[in-house]
Design goal:
globular, binds adenosine-5'-diphosphate, alpha+beta, seven-stranded mixed beta sheet, binds magnesium ion, four-stranded mixed beta sheet, 323 residues
Length: 323
Protein backbone atom coordinates (compact mmCIF):
# COMPACT_ATOMS: atom_id res chain seq x y z
CA UNK A 1 0.00 0.00 0.00
CA UNK A 2 1.25 3.40 -0.88
CA UNK A 3 1.54 5.64 2.10
CA UNK A 4 0.06 9.01 1.63
CA UNK A 5 2.43 11.75 2.66
CA UNK A 6 2.43 15.45 2.29
CA UNK A 7 3.97 16.67 -0.92
CA UNK A 8 7.00 18.83 -0.38
CA UNK A 9 7.68 21.91 -2.44
CA UNK A 10 10.23 19.91 -4.41
CA UNK A 11 7.81 17.04 -5.04
CA UNK A 12 5.31 19.55 -6.37
CA UNK A 13 7.81 21.16 -8.71
CA UNK A 14 9.17 17.83 -9.94
CA UNK A 15 5.83 16.14 -10.45
CA UNK A 16 3.65 18.90 -11.80
CA UNK A 17 5.83 21.63 -13.16
CA UNK A 18 8.96 20.04 -14.54
CA UNK A 19 8.83 19.26 -18.22
CA UNK A 20 11.58 18.94 -20.71
CA UNK A 21 12.30 22.42 -22.02
CA UNK A 22 13.10 21.76 -25.64
CA UNK A 23 13.63 25.34 -26.62
CA UNK A 24 15.74 26.50 -23.68
CA UNK A 25 19.48 26.09 -23.15
CA UNK A 26 18.64 25.23 -19.53
CA UNK A 27 15.13 24.78 -18.14
CA UNK A 28 13.76 24.46 -14.60
CA UNK A 29 15.96 22.93 -11.90
CA UNK A 30 18.88 25.31 -11.62
CA UNK A 31 19.00 28.70 -9.94
CA UNK A 32 17.83 30.28 -13.15
CA UNK A 33 17.00 29.24 -16.69
CA UNK A 34 19.01 30.03 -19.78
CA UNK A 35 17.47 30.96 -23.11
CA UNK A 36 19.01 31.96 -26.38
CA UNK A 37 17.16 34.64 -28.30
CA UNK A 38 17.01 34.15 -32.07
CA UNK A 39 19.39 36.43 -33.96
CA UNK A 40 17.74 39.63 -35.09
CA UNK A 41 14.97 39.33 -32.51
CA UNK A 42 13.92 41.38 -29.55
CA UNK A 43 12.87 39.69 -26.33
CA UNK A 44 9.22 40.45 -25.47
CA UNK A 45 8.47 40.07 -21.77
CA UNK A 46 5.24 40.32 -19.82
CA UNK A 47 3.60 39.06 -16.65
CA UNK A 48 0.01 38.65 -15.55
CA UNK A 49 -1.32 37.57 -12.19
CA UNK A 50 -4.57 35.81 -11.31
CA UNK A 51 -5.69 36.53 -7.75
CA UNK A 52 -8.35 34.52 -5.93
CA UNK A 53 -11.45 36.59 -5.19
CA UNK A 54 -10.54 39.14 -7.80
CA UNK A 55 -9.98 37.29 -11.08
CA UNK A 56 -11.73 34.06 -10.18
CA UNK A 57 -13.99 32.62 -7.52
CA UNK A 58 -12.57 30.42 -4.76
CA UNK A 59 -13.31 26.84 -5.72
CA UNK A 60 -12.88 27.53 -9.43
CA UNK A 61 -12.03 24.55 -11.62
CA UNK A 62 -8.22 24.22 -11.37
CA UNK A 63 -7.87 22.99 -14.95
CA UNK A 64 -9.59 26.13 -16.22
CA UNK A 65 -7.46 28.28 -13.95
CA UNK A 66 -4.29 26.72 -15.32
CA UNK A 67 -5.57 27.25 -18.83
CA UNK A 68 -6.56 30.85 -18.25
CA UNK A 69 -3.37 31.82 -16.41
CA UNK A 70 -1.43 30.82 -19.53
CA UNK A 71 -4.01 32.12 -22.01
CA UNK A 72 -4.03 35.69 -20.71
CA UNK A 73 -0.25 35.83 -20.95
CA UNK A 74 -0.31 34.43 -24.47
CA UNK A 75 -2.79 37.15 -25.32
CA UNK A 76 -0.24 39.79 -24.33
CA UNK A 77 2.24 38.22 -26.73
CA UNK A 78 -0.44 38.22 -29.43
CA UNK A 79 -1.08 41.91 -28.87
CA UNK A 80 2.62 42.62 -29.42
CA UNK A 81 2.81 40.50 -32.55
CA UNK A 82 5.29 38.30 -30.71
CA UNK A 83 6.00 34.59 -30.96
CA UNK A 84 5.62 33.23 -27.39
CA UNK A 85 8.52 30.96 -26.41
CA UNK A 86 9.05 30.52 -22.66
CA UNK A 87 7.09 30.92 -19.42
CA UNK A 88 7.72 31.03 -15.69
CA UNK A 89 5.12 30.20 -13.09
CA UNK A 90 5.06 31.62 -9.55
CA UNK A 91 2.39 29.81 -7.63
CA UNK A 92 1.14 30.19 -4.05
CA UNK A 93 -1.40 27.61 -2.90
CA UNK A 94 -2.88 27.13 0.57
CA UNK A 95 -2.39 23.35 0.56
CA UNK A 96 -0.38 20.75 -1.35
CA UNK A 97 -3.57 19.28 -2.80
CA UNK A 98 -2.44 16.65 -5.26
CA UNK A 99 -5.67 16.50 -7.27
CA UNK A 100 -5.85 20.27 -7.53
CA UNK A 101 -2.22 20.53 -8.61
CA UNK A 102 -2.54 17.78 -11.18
CA UNK A 103 -5.56 19.40 -12.77
CA UNK A 104 -4.08 22.87 -12.64
CA UNK A 105 -0.89 21.60 -14.26
CA UNK A 106 -2.87 19.78 -16.95
CA UNK A 107 -4.77 22.92 -17.97
CA UNK A 108 -1.63 25.01 -17.91
CA UNK A 109 0.58 22.57 -19.80
CA UNK A 110 -2.01 21.79 -22.41
CA UNK A 111 -2.33 25.31 -23.75
CA UNK A 112 1.39 25.97 -23.25
CA UNK A 113 2.19 22.94 -25.40
CA UNK A 114 -0.37 23.92 -28.02
CA UNK A 115 1.54 27.18 -28.47
CA UNK A 116 4.94 25.50 -28.12
CA UNK A 117 5.78 27.45 -25.00
CA UNK A 118 8.18 25.79 -22.56
CA UNK A 119 7.82 26.23 -18.81
CA UNK A 120 11.39 26.98 -17.80
CA UNK A 121 11.08 27.90 -14.14
CA UNK A 122 9.08 29.53 -11.41
CA UNK A 123 8.54 29.62 -7.70
CA UNK A 124 6.28 27.58 -5.45
CA UNK A 125 5.01 28.69 -2.07
CA UNK A 126 2.34 28.06 0.50
CA UNK A 127 -0.08 30.94 0.86
CA UNK A 128 -3.42 32.30 -0.32
CA UNK A 129 -4.02 31.06 -3.87
CA UNK A 130 -2.21 33.30 -6.31
CA UNK A 131 -1.02 32.48 -9.80
CA UNK A 132 1.56 34.61 -11.51
CA UNK A 133 2.86 33.75 -14.95
CA UNK A 134 5.68 35.46 -16.73
CA UNK A 135 5.96 34.98 -20.43
CA UNK A 136 8.82 35.58 -22.82
CA UNK A 137 8.55 35.79 -26.55
CA UNK A 138 10.37 37.03 -29.59
CA UNK A 139 9.69 39.51 -32.31
CA UNK A 140 11.89 40.56 -35.22
CA UNK A 141 13.70 43.76 -34.33
CA UNK A 142 11.46 46.82 -34.69
CA UNK A 143 8.43 44.78 -35.75
CA UNK A 144 6.45 44.68 -32.49
CA UNK A 145 2.84 45.91 -32.58
CA UNK A 146 2.63 48.72 -30.10
CA UNK A 147 -0.07 50.88 -28.59
CA UNK A 148 1.52 54.08 -29.77
CA UNK A 149 1.42 53.50 -33.52
CA UNK A 150 -2.17 54.45 -34.45
CA UNK A 151 -2.41 57.21 -37.09
CA UNK A 152 -5.26 59.51 -38.09
CA UNK A 153 -7.16 57.90 -40.96
CA UNK A 154 -6.48 54.33 -39.76
CA UNK A 155 -9.35 51.87 -39.72
CA UNK A 156 -10.04 50.32 -36.33
CA UNK A 157 -10.58 46.56 -36.33
CA UNK A 158 -11.44 43.91 -33.77
CA UNK A 159 -11.21 40.14 -33.95
CA UNK A 160 -13.97 37.72 -33.02
CA UNK A 161 -16.95 38.97 -31.03
CA UNK A 162 -17.07 41.29 -28.04
CA UNK A 163 -18.75 41.10 -24.66
CA UNK A 164 -19.42 37.38 -24.40
CA UNK A 165 -17.22 36.81 -21.35
CA UNK A 166 -18.78 39.77 -19.56
CA UNK A 167 -22.22 38.47 -20.46
CA UNK A 168 -21.34 35.16 -18.80
CA UNK A 169 -20.30 37.04 -15.67
CA UNK A 170 -23.52 39.07 -15.74
CA UNK A 171 -25.41 35.81 -15.92
CA UNK A 172 -23.49 34.33 -12.98
CA UNK A 173 -24.29 37.48 -11.01
CA UNK A 174 -27.96 37.08 -12.00
CA UNK A 175 -28.05 40.41 -13.77
CA UNK A 176 -29.24 38.79 -16.98
CA UNK A 177 -30.83 35.44 -17.80
CA UNK A 178 -29.17 33.43 -20.58
CA UNK A 179 -30.68 30.25 -21.93
CA UNK A 180 -28.71 26.99 -21.75
CA UNK A 181 -27.07 27.38 -25.15
CA UNK A 182 -26.14 31.01 -24.65
CA UNK A 183 -24.81 30.22 -21.20
CA UNK A 184 -22.60 27.38 -22.46
CA UNK A 185 -21.21 29.56 -25.24
CA UNK A 186 -20.54 32.59 -23.04
CA UNK A 187 -19.04 30.54 -20.20
CA UNK A 188 -16.62 28.95 -22.64
CA UNK A 189 -15.64 32.43 -23.80
CA UNK A 190 -15.05 33.45 -20.17
CA UNK A 191 -13.21 30.32 -19.05
CA UNK A 192 -11.34 29.33 -22.18
CA UNK A 193 -10.45 32.47 -24.11
CA UNK A 194 -8.50 31.87 -27.33
CA UNK A 195 -5.39 34.03 -27.39
CA UNK A 196 -5.06 35.39 -30.93
CA UNK A 197 -1.40 34.56 -31.30
CA UNK A 198 -1.51 33.68 -35.01
CA UNK A 199 -3.40 36.85 -35.79
CA UNK A 200 -0.84 38.94 -33.92
CA UNK A 201 2.00 37.35 -35.84
CA UNK A 202 0.32 37.94 -39.18
CA UNK A 203 -0.50 41.55 -38.36
CA UNK A 204 3.16 42.50 -38.21
CA UNK A 205 3.90 44.83 -41.05
CA UNK A 206 0.17 45.29 -41.61
CA UNK A 207 -1.23 46.90 -38.44
CA UNK A 208 0.00 50.23 -37.10
CA UNK A 209 -1.02 49.49 -33.51
CA UNK A 210 -2.62 46.73 -31.47
CA UNK A 211 -3.88 45.88 -28.01
CA UNK A 212 -5.66 42.88 -26.54
CA UNK A 213 -9.08 43.52 -25.06
CA UNK A 214 -8.90 42.44 -21.45
CA UNK A 215 -10.70 45.34 -19.79
CA UNK A 216 -13.30 46.12 -22.44
CA UNK A 217 -13.17 47.84 -25.83
CA UNK A 218 -13.66 51.40 -24.57
CA UNK A 219 -10.95 51.11 -21.93
CA UNK A 220 -8.43 49.25 -24.06
CA UNK A 221 -8.92 51.24 -27.24
CA UNK A 222 -8.67 54.25 -24.94
CA UNK A 223 -5.11 53.19 -24.07
CA UNK A 224 -4.20 53.09 -27.76
CA UNK A 225 -5.68 56.57 -28.31
CA UNK A 226 -3.82 57.97 -25.36
CA UNK A 227 -0.49 56.44 -26.28
CA UNK A 228 -0.88 57.40 -29.95
CA UNK A 229 -2.30 60.88 -29.16
CA UNK A 230 -5.25 60.46 -31.50
CA UNK A 231 -9.05 60.12 -31.27
CA UNK A 232 -11.54 57.53 -32.53
CA UNK A 233 -15.05 57.40 -33.96
CA UNK A 234 -16.76 54.06 -33.36
CA UNK A 235 -19.99 52.80 -34.91
CA UNK A 236 -22.02 50.97 -32.29
CA UNK A 237 -23.91 48.96 -34.90
CA UNK A 238 -20.71 47.60 -36.39
CA UNK A 239 -19.41 46.10 -33.14
CA UNK A 240 -19.22 42.35 -33.75
CA UNK A 241 -21.57 40.44 -31.48
CA UNK A 242 -22.27 36.78 -31.02
CA UNK A 243 -25.75 35.39 -31.50
CA UNK A 244 -25.94 35.01 -27.73
CA UNK A 245 -25.23 38.67 -27.13
CA UNK A 246 -27.33 39.88 -30.07
CA UNK A 247 -30.31 38.08 -28.55
CA UNK A 248 -30.16 40.42 -25.53
CA UNK A 249 -29.05 43.65 -27.18
CA UNK A 250 -32.25 45.45 -26.17
CA UNK A 251 -31.07 45.19 -22.57
CA UNK A 252 -28.74 47.83 -21.27
CA UNK A 253 -26.48 45.29 -19.59
CA UNK A 254 -25.82 43.49 -22.88
CA UNK A 255 -24.92 46.77 -24.58
CA UNK A 256 -22.57 47.60 -21.74
CA UNK A 257 -20.95 44.15 -22.13
CA UNK A 258 -20.45 44.79 -25.83
CA UNK A 259 -18.66 48.11 -25.49
CA UNK A 260 -17.05 47.74 -22.09
CA UNK A 261 -17.03 44.08 -21.06
CA UNK A 262 -13.66 42.61 -20.16
CA UNK A 263 -12.04 39.20 -20.47
CA UNK A 264 -12.64 38.63 -24.18
CA UNK A 265 -8.96 38.61 -25.14
CA UNK A 266 -9.71 39.59 -28.69
CA UNK A 267 -7.32 41.92 -30.49
CA UNK A 268 -8.14 45.51 -31.39
CA UNK A 269 -5.80 46.93 -34.03
CA UNK A 270 -5.52 49.80 -36.46
CA UNK A 271 -4.37 49.71 -40.07
CA UNK A 272 -4.47 52.05 -43.03
CA UNK A 273 -7.58 51.81 -45.27
CA UNK A 274 -5.33 50.57 -48.07
CA UNK A 275 -5.00 47.32 -46.12
CA UNK A 276 -8.72 46.53 -45.93
CA UNK A 277 -8.70 43.68 -48.38
CA UNK A 278 -5.55 42.19 -46.92
CA UNK A 279 -7.04 42.27 -43.42
CA UNK A 280 -10.26 40.62 -44.60
CA UNK A 281 -8.29 37.96 -46.45
CA UNK A 282 -6.29 37.30 -43.30
CA UNK A 283 -9.49 36.83 -41.31
CA UNK A 284 -10.71 34.32 -43.87
CA UNK A 285 -7.40 32.47 -43.78
CA UNK A 286 -7.50 32.25 -39.97
CA UNK A 287 -11.25 31.48 -39.88
CA UNK A 288 -11.53 34.41 -37.51
CA UNK A 289 -13.94 37.25 -38.26
CA UNK A 290 -12.15 40.60 -38.41
CA UNK A 291 -14.53 43.53 -38.24
CA UNK A 292 -13.98 47.19 -39.01
CA UNK A 293 -15.61 49.19 -36.24
CA UNK A 294 -14.49 52.77 -36.82
CA UNK A 295 -11.74 55.19 -37.62
CA UNK A 296 -8.86 56.97 -35.99
CA UNK A 297 -8.88 60.75 -36.36
CA UNK A 298 -6.92 63.70 -35.09
CA UNK A 299 -7.97 64.97 -31.69
CA UNK A 300 -8.63 63.49 -28.32
CA UNK A 301 -11.14 61.00 -26.95
CA UNK A 302 -13.52 58.40 -28.28
CA UNK A 303 -16.96 58.99 -29.80
CA UNK A 304 -19.56 56.29 -30.20
CA UNK A 305 -22.31 56.70 -32.84
CA UNK A 306 -25.63 54.96 -33.35
CA UNK A 307 -26.95 53.87 -36.75
CA UNK A 308 -28.55 57.29 -37.36
CA UNK A 309 -25.28 59.08 -36.73
CA UNK A 310 -26.37 60.22 -33.27
CA UNK A 311 -23.66 60.43 -30.68
CA UNK A 312 -24.05 58.11 -27.70
CA UNK A 313 -23.02 59.48 -24.35
CA UNK A 314 -20.31 57.39 -22.78
CA UNK A 315 -20.34 57.36 -18.99
CA UNK A 316 -17.59 55.62 -17.12
CA UNK A 317 -17.20 52.20 -18.64
CA UNK A 318 -20.60 52.09 -20.34
CA UNK A 319 -22.86 54.49 -22.17
CA UNK A 320 -26.37 55.94 -21.92
CA UNK A 321 -29.20 56.88 -24.17
CA UNK A 322 -30.68 54.48 -26.64
CA UNK A 323 -34.20 55.18 -27.53
P1 LIG B 1 15.42 28.89 -5.44
O1 LIG B 1 15.62 28.39 -4.06
O2 LIG B 1 16.68 29.19 -6.17
O3 LIG B 1 14.39 29.97 -5.52
P2 LIG B 1 13.44 26.95 -5.97
O4 LIG B 1 13.64 25.89 -4.98
O5 LIG B 1 12.37 27.95 -5.72
O6 LIG B 1 14.83 27.64 -6.25
O7 LIG B 1 13.16 26.30 -7.38
C1 LIG B 1 13.96 25.23 -7.86
C2 LIG B 1 13.80 25.16 -9.35
O8 LIG B 1 12.45 24.81 -9.68
C3 LIG B 1 14.10 26.46 -10.07
O9 LIG B 1 14.75 26.16 -11.29
C4 LIG B 1 12.74 27.05 -10.32
O10 LIG B 1 12.74 27.86 -11.49
C5 LIG B 1 11.89 25.79 -10.51
N1 LIG B 1 10.49 26.00 -10.09
C6 LIG B 1 10.05 26.31 -8.86
N2 LIG B 1 8.71 26.44 -8.84
C7 LIG B 1 8.29 26.19 -10.11
C8 LIG B 1 7.01 26.19 -10.75
N3 LIG B 1 5.88 26.43 -10.09
N4 LIG B 1 6.99 25.93 -12.07
C9 LIG B 1 8.12 25.70 -12.76
N5 LIG B 1 9.32 25.68 -12.22
C10 LIG B 1 9.43 25.92 -10.91
MG1 LIG C 1 12.53 30.11 -5.57
Amino acid sequence: MRRARALSEFDIIRRFFTREARSAVLGAGDDAALVRVSPGSELVVSTDMLVSGRHFFAGADPELLGYKAMAVNLSDMAAMGARPRWALLALAAPRADETWLRRFSRGFMRIARAHRVDLIGGDTNRGPLNICVQILGEVARGQALRRDGARAGDDIWVSGTLGDAALALAHLKKRIALNARERAFCLARLNRPSPRVELGLKLRGMAHSAIDISDGLLADLGHVLERSRVAADIQFESLPRSRALAGHITQKIARACLVAGGDDYELCFTASPGRRRAVLRLGTRLSLPLTRIGRIRLGKGLALFDAQGGKLRINGRGFDHFA
